Amino acid sequence: MAIILGLESSCDETAAALVTSEREIRAHALAGQEEAHRPFGGVVPEIAARAHVDVMTPLVEQVFEESGLSLSDIDAVAATAGPGLIGGVMVGLMTGKALALAGGKPLVAVNHLEGHALSPRLVDPSLEFPYLLLLVSGGHCQLLLVEGVGAYRRLATTIDDAAGEAYDKTAKLLGLGFPGGPAVEHAAKGGDPKAVPLPRPLVGTAEPHFSFAGLKSAVLRARDSGRYASEDIAASFQAATIDCLVDRTAKALGSLDAVNALVVAGGVASNQAIRDALEALAADAGLPFIAPPPWLCTDNAAMIAWAGAERFGAGLTDPLDIPARARWPLDDDAAKARGAGVKA
Ligand code: KG4
Ligand code: ZN
After folding, report:
1. Cβ–Cβ under 8 Å, residues 141 and 163
2. Does residue 232's CB lie within 6 angstroms of at least one atom of ligand 1?
3. C-alpha angle with apex 139: 133 to 144, nearest 5 degrees?
4. Does pTM surpass 0.85?
5. How far is the CA of 327 from the centre of ligand 2 (A)?
6. Which residue among 137, 170, 300 has the greatest number of ligand 1 atoms within 8 angstroms of its CB, and so is best to mutate?
7. Pseudo-torsion of CA 160, 50, 15, 175, nearest 10°?
8. Closest listed ligand to the CA of 268
9. 13 CA distance to ligand 2 centroid (A)?
10. pLDDT at residue 342, rounded to an integer
11. Residue pair 298/2 in contact by the 8 Å Cβ criterion
């Protein structure tokens, strides 16, 4: 059995966790930064990086204390090395390098997206490769065939905004506050999903790519028309988003020969209405549906420690001079989505 320390700091959550190769979470700690970013209605990279510096070391001390373990007890240090806001990524990666050096432990540089992609295997030991993963977060909206540790085939991506970004922008447009995803989900519960006619971008097209920019513009027009209550716009936006996610995922499923499960991960996967819709799709396809519990869907360090455990188990460790990367696709060979710009 191996014990892995995981560190996460790629966006606005600072986190540390100790996880074993036997799927035991010995301790996990997380510090959010909502209050610091709320006045700006979004994550401010410089503020985020400084906040990670303030709390990363105390969180590491906390997980060692809670677990009764010390640096000498662990087998490797896993830290997110990208993609993400570079100042923040550097804080976690440098802390990981320092601990690895001080303790004489191997370093595992984890791709944050791989953390999300493998997190369902932390909670469900029966989940075998290959599986179809819908990865929906603030920065990414992708369909990936997960064939093994480090083996990802990107089947689709967004040609503009990510799903989480669309939630955050909708919340901002409707004055629902920050962070946007949970605020829109909450408002949608009190609204009529059929009240506002909204587009379903790319639905029905041959390749399973995503697009949310047009939906966001339609939300803006609906708001400015003054004809609809915020709850109705939120509910209609969520219904349109779900239709897009389900249609695109169904399209990808249809193109695959054999997968063992439909899996969803990333912050948006904590949305109950989205989970319900995907579960129904999986049932129609005769596949198990697996979604990590909500706290493991949003950013955390347990998923980084677990990805570290999977990589360490496969003999994949990294040199101490490995760089932090703002951009780091899971599938370097993936073709760009048609119409995709150069946006990060
Ligand atoms: O994975 P994550 O925590 O960070 C990134 O790696 O991006 O995802 C954050 C995203 C944000 O856009 C947030 O609004 C969205 O996940 N999110 C949600 C919900 N909770 C978080 N979106 C919809 N419904 C939710 N309940
Ligand atoms: Zn994430």
Report:
1. yes
2. no
3. 20
4. yes
5. 13
6. 137
7. -50
8. 1
9. 9
10. 37
11. no
Per-residue model confidence (pLDDT) at position 42: 84
Q: For the chain, how far is it from start to end, CA to CA, in angstroms? A: 38
- In short, whether 83's Cβ falls inside 6 Å of ligand 1 is no
| pLDDT value for 339 | 57
Q: Does domain 3-117+296-313 have CATH number 3.30.420.40?
A: yes
Answer yes or no: same fold for 3-117+296-313 and 129-292.
Answer: yes
Strands 262-265 and 107-111: unpaired
Q: Architecture of domain 129-292 in CATH?
A: 2-Layer Sandwich (3.30)
Write the pLDDT tens digit of every residue in 39-55: 888 889 999 999 999 99
Domain boundaries, the chain: 3-117+296-313, 129-292
List the structure tokens of 96.
Answer: 């990981």
Is 185 close to ligand 1, i.e. is its CB under 6 Å away?
A: yes
Q: Give the residue carrying structure tokens 């990670």.
A: 52
In ligand 1, the atom with minimum distance to the C-alpha of 297 is 1
